[in-house]
Amino acid sequence: MRIAELASPCLCIFLLAVSADSGAAQQQPGDPLQSLVVSPDELMRHREETGLTETQLERIHVLLQKAEPEIRELDKRARDSIDRLARLLSKERLDEDATRKQLDHFLEIQKEQQRRHLWTMIQIRNELTPEQRQTATRIAQAQHSVEALEQRLREKLARIETAMRLRAQAGPPPPEVVSLMQNFPALMQNGQTREAEQLLDRVIGTLGLDREGKPQPGQAPPPGIAQTTLVPQNAEDSSQVRPIDATLTADGLDDAKAQEEFYRIDEVQTIQLQISPENMQRMLAALPERIYVPASFQWRDVKVDNVAVRLKGNSSSNPHQSHKRSFLIKFNEYEADARFFGLQRVSFDNGVQFGSLFSEPIVTRILRDQGLPTHRANYARIFLNGDYLGVYVNVERIDMSFVQQHLPDSNGALFKVDEGGPGSNLQLVSDAPSFYKKTFEPKSDSAKKAYAHLVDFMRMINAAEPDEFAAALESSLELDDFLRVSAVMLFSGAFDQLTGGSPHNYYLYYDTQRDRWRYLPWDLDVGFCEEAFGRLHVLADWNAAWPLPPTPAPNPLLERIVADPALLQRYRQVARTVLEDYFEPKHLCEIIDANYKRIQPDLESDPFPHQRVTVPGDRDYDGIVESIKSFVRKRYTSAVQQLENPGSEADFKRQRQQLAGRQGSLPPHLADKIRQLEQRLGAMRNEGQDILPLQSRMPQIPRLLQQGQMDEAERLLDQLLEEAGAKPGGTLQGPPPR
User: Fold this and answer.
1) Which own/partner contact pairs does 49-56 have at CB distance under 8 Å and 24+ positions apart?
2) 252-268 pLDDT, tens per residue?
3) Helix (H) or strand (E) holding 56
4) Is residue 510 over pLDDT 90?
5) Whether the predicted pLDDT of 28 surpasses 70
6) I want to staple 605 with a disulfide (CB 3.0 to 4.6 A). Which of 41, 238, 245, 533 is the partner?
């Protein structure tokens, strides 16, 4: 159906009559509003040119989302009003009083619409710096030219017509589109081109496209989503999930622009994977080993054949697990020079840890907004052989593509610490470089030759004289960046890091040209939880003023920073700034809500359990989001108090001794049983078993130990081990009864 066929002759004639001055509604070149307000459309189209930061983008999106319900209600009222007006005009003899009243009513609603749009633009203006406002104003003035406006109208009409053709087989166009497009011809005939463009924008939104013609989250696709072996057999109907829209183009974009689009924080990407049944079976049969199999990959209209796909992470390795599995796509496995817009690999994480689907996108955004080289993360809906697998976190890989794009020395040495091991906490345990090769996995050719530099770096951390340590650290490490990362990890509760007491999930990068090291955090899906595993008290034991991890394990780098008064003061100054700029509860909770709203329509049809595997008590994503926001509020309150009143070093040492008493100073046989129980619960969790009944009793153990009731604690441990299917002090007996 063509656009012209949507117009109502009655309304067109009426609007021609009420708009005799064809240019009255247009914005004239000298309009003072151009210097006061900025159109959201023009601002987003030119976000690079105006230099918008990711925080500004997020705040603007929050403002737009806040305005959306009122704008939708005004649009509905306007449609109802124009419908009533049309009915009055359809009569053979017009009731002049009733028609005039209805016309006044319609024009009053239009005034409210204009007022609401203008107020939103004023709010957005206040988010910009003076320089950004000047740039945006120049762009807006250029955009207001007749030629540019007419070109935009043609493009938007073409997108609408394309969308209507794609929907033609599903039946008639949506009534809202018909109602809106009835007004378009008259607006154009009257020269009200700005109003006509705003109307097209509303039509584009109604059709499920954004202002650029890209699909918005939550629009319904054609029915018929099937099931595969990687989708739960009891999955709910997923017909409300949108498949890929091949009308979106990425072909022809340069690498930088395409990557920017692929990792846009305001857009849920759609990915299509195709794996043959034979290769699918081969991949699943190999578990727990994770092997690559050939596949094809499509994003927008760009399809890449002969890529390699495997399942990713320990949480996806169990053959019998019930939760979502993560994927790693490698473009250069079969062809060494193959890239996806410059990327060697992309990954899609399942978001089932403590931070759910929210921790990684939020933490990486905070780090990147401070100018720290950090991997990018947003959301993606994944389809495998046409079957909907749910919402994933689209995480940029830290590899040589990342080094070449984000770090100064493209030939720098990149090491990954994945599972931990000797020296993973940067404690010098040997002077032999070969001792650390298993712990620090080389991820670049230059890293294979840089182990001696790594040992020198660790030796400096552990052995530099106290009065020389600060200067030596400053010359060897990107110190301010490390302090910022430490503060962000602490405030977000990301404990599964070197800075949080679990010395793994990070990269070290050595700039060979400048002889300096950089710490790169990784795998940030563990965060925003108050307590973990019944014994790790993230809020209670992680003091914002004394940034040692909430465990008694050695951490030489942070221990020496805390022991140096100047470095400790420097950290606290950084921490105060980071806390207020990024972790103020109202602002951060708005970002969390915005992220949730962005993926909520797609989560409704996500076929996997709506819970974290680490928190079996979860019931739904509403509860998960509320628990994350609760952590944010409590963390901010305690951090403010701790930074304002840090207490003495002696007080802090006493707290650390108490922490060691709870977590570390145990008889060896009890420590072994606790580790055995944790390992068994982890295995059960990966198998999809309900560990809540066991996990809910674990907090009794530290309480008994703290009270000195060692025998009672050991009896409880033995009982839990037996119920978990493990022989106390021995080997696993097999899975417990379900």
Assistant:
1) 49/135, 49/139, 50/128, 50/132, 50/135, 50/136, 50/139, 51/131, 51/132, 51/135, 52/132, 53/369, 54/265, 54/365, 54/368, 54/369, 55/365, 55/369, 55/582, 56/127, 56/128
2) 678 889 999 999 999 99
3) helix 54-89
4) yes
5) no
6) 238
